[in-house]
Write a structure and sequence with these properties.
mainly alpha
Length: about 80
């Protein structure tokens, strides 16, 4: 059983250029903002997984998001299970 404690902190301001607001009808900017708010408020690190159909942009999103997180001082590791 795993528990997660969330502490309220200020949201992270991210660059609008790195992850576009609209990508093929999906709001990737909103997804990144929501995940950033969640992860910024965690007491400790976490592991996340992106899952979706082939071709929906998981890899592109993950690489753009990782670049933003790294630029904001978060430690990140990208692992491609299919590579």
């Amino acid at each position: 059983l795993c528990s997660m404690r969330i502490a309220k902190k200020n949201p992270i301001a991210l660059s609008e250029q790195s992850i576009p607001k609209d990508h093929g009808g999906l709001s990737r900017r909103d997804l990144a903002d929501n995940l950033n708010s969640l992860f910024a408020n965690l007491d400790q690190g976490t592991v996340s997984i992106l899952d979706g159909r082939w071709g929906v942009g998981k890899t592109t999103f993950a690489r753009q998001w990782m670049k933003e997180l790294t630029g904001n001082g978060f430690g990140t590791i990208y692992f491609d299970a299919f590579a």
